[in-house]
Amino acid sequence: MRAILLRRAASAARVDVLLYTQSFARTGEILSSSLLHVKQMHARCICFAESAVKVPHASVTPSVHAGNLAHYKCTRSYASDTDAYLSLVRPLSSNKLSSIGFHRVGIPILGVDSPEIWTHHKDLRPCQAILDEVSAKVEPSVILIDGKLIAERIKQEVAEEVARVKSQTAGKVPGLAMVLVGLREDAKTYVWSKKKACKEVGIESFEENLPEDSSEEEVVNVVGKFNDDPSVHGILVQLPLPKHINEERVLAAVNVEKDVDGFHPLNIGKLAMQGRSPLFVPCTPRGCIELLLRSNIDIKGKHAVVIGRSNIVGTPAAMLLQQHQATVSVVHSYTPNPAEITNRADIVIAAAGVAHLVRGDWIKPGAVVIDVGINLIEDPSAKKGYRLVGDVCFKEAVTKASAITPVPGGVGPMTIAMLLCNTLESAKRAFGISDQ
Ligand SMILES: Nc1nc(=O)c2c([nH]1)NC[C@@H]1CN(c3ccc(C(=O)N[C@@H](CCC(=O)O)C(=O)O)cc3)C=[N+]21
Q1: Ligand 1 in contact with 408 (CB < 6 A)?
Q2: Whole-structure pTM over 0.95, yes or no?
Q3: Any idea where the Tetrahydrofolate dehydrogenase/cyclohydrolase NAD(P)-binding domain is (predicted)?
Q4: Is 142 domain-assigned?
């Protein structure tokens, strides 16, 4: 099964090297040294990890990204064999790959097992190298959409409203519960920043940390406990969950009236329908729209292109843009001409999870670019040795766009601000308090 998937993926992506491992975290160092070879060969490479971990290890991610030779994307979990399976650490030429069976067959790859792998890194010149050449050409009129600032304003509004709720309910405040399974570093950071934001605006936060090997039953039980707790108005199950846990079942267990992430099928379903109002809209897509609205950017009648089709960003973002009267195209890893389609967009929302996927030539002059990506890339000049970049090659796009969000400081802080808004709205519904 795994061999078939790997072969399919390799032929789809026209890669030279395929690295496969059970977990980036465990095999980081081995991968790093293999990737050095890859780098020297100027090969195209894809790394797979069985665990759905995308970013975490500085030791791996920067190497993967070094020189933009590689793009990687963790796929869904496959059959879980025993040891870390690092079979294909083979920096081979394409010819050699063919000789061992990795043909460029070009078959369409469809079906549930198809991994989401982007294959459009045509230009192997690292984005960084081009940057300095173009930086002189930046349009002075381009608007930098400051997500951090806008999120701060929203947090102030939320804080004022929380105070009003408190005074009208003899001291009751909104409550947000977070369920974290396992000990992923990045997840802990996110949960920490969400708790901090809650504190800033007067929302009470609850946290339940479950061990990585918890059973689905245990996770569902914790969700149930928060469902029954009247001081909790929002429940957030931090994603991704460990692979032995059925995400669909856990998310469906969240009381739809406390689903501040907006991931409950009923909320998503209503979002997809005309004339229905979901109780909650997913935070990141809502944050993108809010950035547009608060920057006085018209959505109505505009052509919007959403890059990526995930359940948590791409798909709900496309639905939300339609609710706002945009004409929407969704570009994904099987779209043959993503640059061409994106180049027709007035508004681009990039949510593919691939660093620097969107290059300058993808952007129509004057387009508005919202970059949802959060990717770590190697940067020796940075204190930690890596830095955060988006799905958009910022310095190229900034020469074309009329407005653009940075990473960090763009969509990220808005996700948290929208979570606070959703929690506040939920509490107001529970307390029977209307908007003033
Ligand atoms: N059930 C669930 N709901 C989520 O909303 C959810 C999730 N699971 N799993 C993980 C992702 C990721 N996420 C982020 C939130 C804020 C920033 C953020 O504030 N980023 C800052 C900086 C971060 C930094 O510097 O490290 C920025 O972009 O400026 C990033 C990422 C929410 N997620």
Answers
A1: yes
A2: no
A3: 282-430
A4: yes
